[in-house]
């Protein structure tokens, strides 16, 4: 491979990074076949430390679908189908709130590539399974931790419910998806556009009780990745529903991200944490880049749209340097360095994380011409 030149034009570096990403994914599935890692430990994918929850099984196959479409290489297509089939049964999984992550990245990409209704049926089923999490009193989709808990992360998974509702003509499912977004907007998004990680409700009455966190610094602080789930997820909710309130919320979340992040575009784990333990949470930046590309394509105002697109490019300009891209770090098994999974539990801190890899690849793909609305 040609030596990585951090001063080369952005598109040149992005193309080189995508080639490098293919090398890393190929090595991962060769070294650890049929294995779905979440995060590295000192740069290595296999380590036996706890997962906390199982939400990342679509991201490996999702990268393969992107590689297959970009390169036309049949071997990537075969691997993408194989890794998608390995998670097919998850369409019925009622234990997690993450079936959007799992199926949008894999089976939905498979459907987009094939137009095969039998493939789409798995995506629809996953959306219907997600709908079972709805609490009628509180009007939210419950998180995996407890019935009284709603996570900001679920905004990235509610899209698959909108999709299933539209495909099946199920008005009640559509209502649940929409009400979840409105509840999240009301109780988890604050007046300044920042977000809480979690809302706690009275399960019987539906009364909202308080904001809380698992992965952020404090209950009333601003966990960066949660913010990016919101800015991307509310954009998707607008795209699939046409409800302007969701676009407005996505923009407010995006504006908070820009206002509070250093000019290089990569936030710490939590903006409120005094003297953050580490300066970077790169996976939040990768998600934000992809979410900003989507927002830029959704927004009618050309000036704002151009600003969001420029910001996505700024983030990638930073991530496409050897500080973040592991291209000059051969012993490191991941693609993107400096991600954080769960700082409080000390899981995956300053490591490569599987969703960071996926959204980085997705953002690079968009930068190089893939449709920004995926
Ligand atoms: N549990 C999803 C996340 O760590 O962002």
Topology readout:
Layout: H1 10-31, H2 59-71, H3 74-85, H4 99-104, H5 107-114, H6 117-131, E1 134-135, E2 140-141, E3 149-151, H7 159-168, H8 171-187, E4 198-201, E5 208-212, H9 224-241, H10 244-260, H11 282-298, H12 302-319, E6 339-342, E7 347-351, H13 354-367
Antiparallel strand pairs: 1-2, 3-4, 4-5, 6-7
Residues 55, 153, 215, 225, 341 line the site of glycine (GLY).
The small molecules bound here are:
glycine
Task: Report mean pLDDT, rounded to a whole number.
Answer: 97
Low-confidence stretches: none
Number of strands: 7
CATH class: Mainly Alpha
Total domain modules: 1
Shape: globular
CATH fold node name: Glycosyltransferase
Please state roughly what percent of the residues sit in beta strands, choosing from under 5%, 5-15%, 15-25%, 25-35%, 35-45% or over 45%.
5-15%
Instruction: Give the number of helices.
Output: 13
User: What's the CATH architecture?
Assistant: Alpha/alpha barrel
Q: How many angstroms does the end-to-end distance come to?
A: 30 Å
Report on this model:
This protein is mainly α and 374 residues long. It has one domain (10-367): Alpha/alpha barrel (Glycosyltransferase), CATH 1.50.10.10. It is built from 13 helices and 7 strands. It has helices at residues 10-31, 59-71, 74-85, 99-104, 107-114, 117-131, 159-168, 171-187, 224-241, 244-260, 282-298, 302-319, 354-367; strands at 134-135, 140-141, 149-151, 198-201, 208-212, 339-342, 347-351. The strands form 3 sheets. Strands 3-4-5 form a 3-stranded antiparallel sheet, with no helix packed on it. Strand 1 and strand 2 form a beta hairpin. Helix 1 (10-31) runs antiparallel to helix 13 (354-367), helix 6 crosses helix 7 and helix 7 (159-168) runs antiparallel to helix 8. Bound molecules: glycine. Glycine is lined by residues 55, 153, 215, 225, 341. Residues 55, 153, 215, 225, 341 line the site of glycine.
